[in-house]
């Protein structure tokens, strides 16, 4: 085992997602069995007592890879020297709300945390935003951290990617391992677009294996509205699957990929997506750096869907500009 622990910050650590996420990071599911981690956990002051209880439980697991835990309510202290930051802490939506309805309440969290990361994080910091609306919260954090390279700010659409994979596998009666080149484009809201025209199943194009009406009337709405379906069923938003996707995204960003993955990243203008907004693309990762996959052919249907989702992201960007958050 190497000796220097990787400092992993998690915000909203006493929340639902935190309760699934922390134990998996501590057990080695993020960085492997040979890399010690130090958890740095941020909460609001009233939640610190509950967080102390979670830390007792972490102690009681005796994880060999857990080198230490620090908790607190000051982002400047918690982010000090942090290598990986998972920004989860934010209010979840309730039934009947859209994720964008959370912008006014949650957006301001990411101004202060962006500044604190800018001033105190380690030089190799990678920041992944899970708290909703995740794409625009990542834009806010990025805009408030001018000294950190923009590409170090990502948002989570891996949960949508994982959902899209399972729904397709179920439809075709195949294992998820047979599905490659899948990607979610756009925003983590109900305009997100899972593209089956470039997805492969056992080497064949997925869209050729299903009916077009299934894609438009069942598949895309099921994937895009899955978060709402879980809230309706559980009375609470997704937590274990969100923690799993947060681990999947950060692990692949650090360790690399052997297939396309969906990552929301600051757009460089690829595929006509407005530069600067944080949008989901098919990405590959090598040596800790992601690249947006280039040269993908998009049909007219895909282009229209992506443009509609980008319009949502532009509207969210304009709202947070008006609120003075970026
Ligand atoms: N991107 C995705 O795929 C995805 C999936 C699921 C949930 N989410 C989002 O993740 C967020 C968290 O969900 P949850 O179910 O864990 O919610 P939760 O309410 O159970 O926990 C949120 C925690 O964040 C804390 N918090 C609030 N403000 C904070 C701040 N300024 N600093 C640090 N901590 C703060 C709260 O005290 C709370 O403990 C929500 O916004 C939810 O919508 C995103
Ligand atoms: O739907 C939500 O509000 C939670 C989360 O974004 C999800 O997709 O499950």
UniProtKB/TrEMBL annotation:
GO terms for molecular function: L-malate dehydrogenase (NAD+) activity. Catalyzes the reversible oxidation of malate to oxaloacetate. It catalyses: (S)-malate + NAD(+) = oxaloacetate + NADH + H(+). Substrate binds at residues 93, 99, 132, 163. Belongs to the LDH/MDH superfamily. MDH type 2 family. Residues 6-150 form the Lactate/malate dehydrogenase N-terminal domain. Pfam families: Ldh_1_C, Ldh_1_N. The active site is at 188 (proton acceptor). Its EC number is 1.1.1.37. The keyword Oxidoreductase applies. This is Malate dehydrogenase. NAD(+) binds at residues 12-18, 106, 113, 130-132. PROSITE patterns: MDH. CDD domains: MDH_chloroplast-like (cd01338). InterPro entries: L-lactate/malate_DH, Lactate/malate_DH_C, Lactate/malate_DH_N, Lactate_DH/Glyco_Ohase_4_C, Malate_DH_AS, Malate_DH_type2, NAD(P)-bd_dom_sf. It is an enzyme of class 1 (oxidoreductase). Keywords: NAD, Oxidoreductase, Tricarboxylic acid cycle. Residues 157-322 form the Lactate/malate dehydrogenase C-terminal domain.
């Amino acid at each position: 085992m190497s000796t220097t622990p990787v400092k992993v910050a998690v915000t909203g650590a006493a929340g639902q997602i935190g309760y699934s996420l922390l134990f998996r990071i501590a057990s080695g599911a993020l960085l492997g069995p040979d890399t010690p981690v130090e958890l740095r956990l941020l909460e609001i002051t009233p939640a610190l007592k509950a967080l102390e209880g979670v830390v007792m439980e972490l102690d009681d697991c005796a994880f060999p890879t857990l080198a230490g835990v620090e908790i607190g309510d000051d982002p400047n202290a918690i982010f000090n020297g942090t290598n990986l930051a998972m920004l989860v802490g934010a209010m979840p939506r309730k039934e009947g709300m859209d994720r964008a309805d959370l912008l006014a309440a949650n957006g301001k969290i990411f101004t202060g945390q962006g500044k604190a990361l800018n001033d105190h994080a380690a030089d190799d910091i990678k920041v992944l935003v899970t708290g909703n609306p995740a794409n625009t919260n990542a834009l806010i954090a990025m805009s408030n951290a001018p000294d950190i390279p923009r590409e170090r700010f990502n948002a989570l659409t891996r949960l949508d990617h994982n959902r899209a994979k399972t729904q397709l596998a179920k439809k075709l009666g195949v294992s998820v391992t047979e599905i490659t080149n899948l990607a979610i484009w756009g925003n983590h809201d109900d305009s997100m677009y899972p593209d089956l025209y470039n997805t492969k199943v056992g080497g064949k194009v997925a869209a050729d294996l299903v009916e077009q009406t299934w894609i438009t009337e069942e598949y895309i709405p099921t994937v895009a509205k899955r978060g709402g379906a879980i809230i309706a069923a559980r009375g609470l938003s997704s937590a274990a699957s969100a923690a799993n996707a947060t681990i999947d995204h950060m692990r692949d960003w650090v360790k690399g990929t052997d297939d396309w993955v969906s990552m929301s990243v600051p757009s460089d203008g690829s595929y006509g997506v407005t530069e600067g907004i944080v949008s989901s693309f098919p990405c590959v990762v090598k040596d800790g750096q992601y690249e947006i996959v280039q040269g993908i052919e998009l049909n007219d249907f895909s282009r229209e869907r992506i443009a509609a989702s980008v319009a949502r992201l532009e509207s969210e960007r304009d709202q947070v500009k008006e609120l003075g958050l970026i």
